[in-house]
Amino acid sequence: MSVTAPPPAPRAARAVVRPGDRIFAGIARAASLTIMLALAGVFVFLAIEGLPGLSAPENIYAPAEDFWSYVGPLVFGTILAAVVALVLAVPFSIGVALFISHYAPPRIAAPVAYVIDLLAAVPSVVFGLWGGLALASSIRPVTDWLYANLDFIPFFAGPPSVTGRSMLTAGIVLAIMVVPIVTALSREVFAQTPRLHEEAAMALGATRWETIRLAVFPYARSGVISAVMLGLGRALGETMAVAMVLSAAPVVTLNLISDTNPATIAQNIASNYKEATPDKQAVLIATGLVLFAVTFAVNFAARWVIARSERKVSR
Amino acid sequence: MAKSIDVSDLSIYYGDFLAVEGVNMTIRAKAVTAFIGPSGCGKSTFLRTLNRMHEVIPGARVEGKVMVSGQSLYDPTIDPVAVRRRIGMVFQRPNPFPTMSIYDNVIAGVKLNSRKMRKSDADALVERSLRGANLWNEVKDRLDRPGMGLSGGQQQRLCIARAIAVEPEVLLMDEPCSALDPISTSAIEDLIHQLKSEYTIVIVTHNMQQAARVSDETGFFNLKAAGQPGHLVEFNPTTKMFTNPDEPSTEAYISGRFG
Amino acid sequence: MNHPTTTTTTLVEPDAFAITADLTQARLPRWAVLLVGVIALGVAGLVTLLTGWSPTGGLVLAVVLMVAGFPLWSMVVEGRRAAADRLATSLVWGAFVVVLVPLVWLIWMVVSHGVSAIDAEFLTYDMRNVVGAGGGIFHALWGTILVTLAATLISVPVGLFTAIYLVEYGRGKRLARVTTFLVDVMTGIPSIVAGLFALALFVLIFGPAIRVGFGGAVALSLLMIPTVVRSAEEMLRLVPGDLREASYALGIPKWRTIVKVVLPTALGGIITGVVLAISRVIGETAPLLVVAGATDSVNFNLFEGRMMTLPVYIFSQYSSPGVVPVGTEGDPPGYARAWGAALVLIVIVMVLNLVARLIGTYFAPKTERRR
Ligand SMILES: Nc1ncnc2c1ncn2[C@@H]1O[C@H](COP(=O)(O)OP(=O)(O)OP(=O)(O)O)[C@@H](O)[C@H]1O
Ligand SMILES: [Mg+2]
């Protein structure tokens, strides 16, 4: 019996550490501390520069009176644009993802998947350019038709914007940006569902659609939700595509096709930054903090949903 | 110089889980020692404590003493990296480095320890090690090809060549033949016979005949019961183990009348 | 979604057992799809002609008719379950076709307008003293290259070493858990917020009027680091543990094991991840607009003066395109330049993606063996 004191035995393992190892581990640890510092920096600097924006002179907020009534319509616009985008994008994304994973002949599926991946990398400013110069002018017939036939729905109360630069156009552009992201992630999730379960369902005589409902969707649910949330995060924070497509005013309205639309936070920052006085800059930075808070809440909710449904599946 | 290893009262933990309890044995220098025993009784675990590979696993620790030629292996002043240079190891599954050629694999241990060496010395070392591992004739024309391109048995001999290239004094082998066909197995058994003259060899095997063929001494590990820690039941010269063991449970295991 | 057991019951409905008696069942012929398609097109065409709709409207009607008509026919011939299956198939194919339309449209617009805008002058001139047509993207091209390079130089070391910490050192440690969480948070930072952060930082240090390229690089690296950490972490985790053990067993210290064995094995995947991260941030506009500003002339100095970049160039050409010369028809000259720059930017992004893919496949086979 040479060693009698039991637990703190790992000490022996740590006694000799080579200098090379110590330096290398130190660098690695420093790198992750850097990330911590950077994120803390984001909060601190935005707070330092933005807090004065909460109580700037009243005329800065015009036509609103204080910060919260200034940022309110912006938050509304941000969420409205993102929701329109998601409502349009999610069904199509899931459809295309299923197309790639289960429906398309293999010879088509691989190139389609690759093209979708490439599209996820197209810069947003290009989507904005296309939305502003091509889509906006071509969308008039659609908005005219919606106004003529469906104007009892508040979304289409019109009158339609002459330039086509409406919330609907912005939503469509955002949707097209979101589709590749959600598709790419959902496709991966669909492809990873255990083949065994699918074969079991087919052996029961299930049709292809029933197989997907039985053996693919239950497995893919949390993955698809997280894909959608990621798309939502992108739609909430997207700046340029909206700034280039939307003609904005400080209003709150559900009307998607008229020429007075609520602005989004990110767009508002981008379009007002150049001419901003220091007071106004502080206000804009404060709205940036609000945007950060909103996206953070969305991401957090996403993670919570995923964690919960994962627990359910594993049970 | 080959070395003998003295183990006294060694208990091995994974976190709070006691995997092996109270082992005492002396492993002779320049001899082959075999460990046998049922799956999960802690042979690999014990083997890995002999060159401090055990502590690579997070939370793993040992209590007790391992003495190698008068030095305590687990003394706080001992550098585990230096220990592993002296006491080499060959794993169950061949694991050549995938990014390296056959040549680079063999001298990996030397080169990655940043020892500078002349090209001619390196060439000589590669040839010596590969010859030592009985692989030279098969690969001498394709030393610059990836090590992963060899057959499983060749890969395992490459790993042995890699291990002996650092010129250790002890060679630990954890079921080195379990992934191999009979021909590769007998090549490696021949190799063990040759290596015995220079190295202290410890080998874990599930193959009773193999233990009988290659080893001078044999240790039998067993579990007292399911969920209990493993322990050393008997440690004796191989001939005695296989003809006239001290413990009835050893005889039961060896003759296949086990559990 | 409903619980599996509730749906299995629908599978074993009585007529499923009837199949055992007679395995042949009414099926639509293979050419049914084509037939329905032709009919749908025909009907839609007729309606379009009669009511004077736009061709797009007619096309939409055709797709709707097709998606609805085919399952209906199937319902009549094959029964309810088969019809549901056909409907799902139609919807999935429909979704694919509908998504293709705007994407093809976008690519076509960029390519057709862009190609006619690009010439030697466009690639080698900046915008100084340009009124009306002419000028180019030289300054923006250099700005993009410099800013992205600087961002890469910041984020790759930080990201890679963080990944190394998470995989090799941090297992079970609190710092590792916190870092993973923070990387998650970072992934969700809107790009404009990253820009504001960089601006706030530089304004605090250098005063309110500061606009420098390096600020843009800081903002971009904030967006790039989480991507690099994620992909590098994933790749390092794929390196089999027994390679590390083999290396330790040779008496190689841990840090050398990481540098000489683990990193080379994961190298292909790591490079792929970095290149993809670059291609993601190279098109970022908002943060650069805010911190790096816009200018008409070349600036090679990251630390002084405004710096133009391709995305910002596109935006400023779009938002202030200049005027159409009197007496001529057509778009303002800025639009052509914006399309040209957009094409260049897209080509850069696509090339980066292709490179990443090639690197990925080139390095893949060697590490494939044990997954
Ligand atoms: N990394 C680990 N973490 C926790 N427990 C472990 C670990 N590795 C092994 N064990 C446990 O330690 C005990 C001994 O395992 P070990 O691998 O040494 O058995 P073995 O005798 O080598 O078996 P086999 O003949 O199957 O290789 C087993 O109960 C096992 O579950
Ligand atoms: Mg074992």
Output the keywords.
heterotrimer; A: 315 residues; mainly alpha; MetI-like fold; two-stranded parallel sheet; 12 helices; 73% helix; C: 371 residues; 2 domains; 15 helices; disordered N terminus; disordered C terminus; binds adenosine-5'-triphosphate; binds magnesium ion
Task: Please describe what this structure looks like.
The complex is a heterotrimer of chains A (315), B (259) and C (371). Chain A is mainly α. Helices cover 73% and strands 1% of the residues of chain A. Chain A has helices at residues 10-14, 19-50, 67-103, 106-120, 124-138, 140-150, 167-191, 195-203, 208-237, 240-245, 265-272, 278-314, and strands at residues 248-249, 261-262. A two-stranded parallel ribbon of chain A has the order 1-2. Chain B has a domain at 5-100 and 170-254: P-loop containing nucleotide triphosphate hydrolases (Rossmann fold), CATH 3.40.50. In chain B, 35% of the residues lie in helices and 25% in strands. Chain B contains ten helices and ten strands. In chain B, strand 1 and strand 2 form a beta hairpin. Chain C folds into two domains: 32-114, no CATH class; 121-319 and 331-362, MetI-like (MetI-like fold, Orthogonal Bundle). Chain C contains 15 helices and no strands. Chain C has helices at 4-11, 14-18, 32-51, 55-78, 80-117, 120-124, 138-169, 174-187, 191-206, 213-238, 241-249, 254-281, 286-291, 310-319, 333-368. Chain C is flat, with a radius of gyration of 29 Å. Residues 1-12 and 367-371 of chain C have low confidence and may be disordered. The complex binds adenosine-5'-triphosphate and magnesium ion (MG).
Helix and strand string of chain C, N-terminal first? HHHHHHHHHHHHHHH
CATH class division of the domain at 5-100 and 170-254 in chain B = Alpha Beta
CATH superfamily of the domain at 5-100 and 170-254 in chain B: P-loop containing nucleotide triphosphate hydrolases
What is the tally of helical segments of chain B? 10
